[in-house]
Q: What sequence folds into this?
């Protein structure tokens, strides 16, 4: 005896399989994009170019370059503020690009657990 599926049931199962495949493809694309971002280096300058900060996409600080004229022993606080500002700016750049790429892949939807 052959079992029969209720009418329309087969189509729902196929639709579910299609959705799973799309989600898997989306996850693969996101993983690839994240890897590309990790390999990229981001640079920003602050203080009119007096401080340059370079960071990788996986948020590893690579370098801080200072123009000699901003190193004033009498005003260390300004230098500290510029460094903090530069690090925060480059972090925002990494985050913004990561979010943009993920939104492009996912169409702007947030799927918990996908990444």
A:
């Amino acid at each position: 005896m052959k079992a029969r599926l209720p009418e329309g049931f087969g189509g729902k199962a196929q639709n579910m399989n299609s959705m799973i495949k799309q989600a898997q493809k989306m996850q693969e694309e996101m993983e690839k994009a994240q890897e590309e971002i990790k390999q990229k280096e981001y640079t920003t300058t602050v203080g009119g170019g007096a401080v340059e900060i370079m960071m990788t996409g996986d948020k590893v600080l690579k370098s801080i370059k200072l123009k000699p004229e901003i190193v004033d022993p009498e005003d260390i606080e300004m230098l500290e503020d510029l460094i903090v500002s530069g690090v925060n700016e480059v972090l925002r750049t990494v985050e913004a690009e990561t979010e943009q790429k993920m939104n492009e892949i996912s169409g702007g939807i947030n799927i918990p657990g996908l990444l």
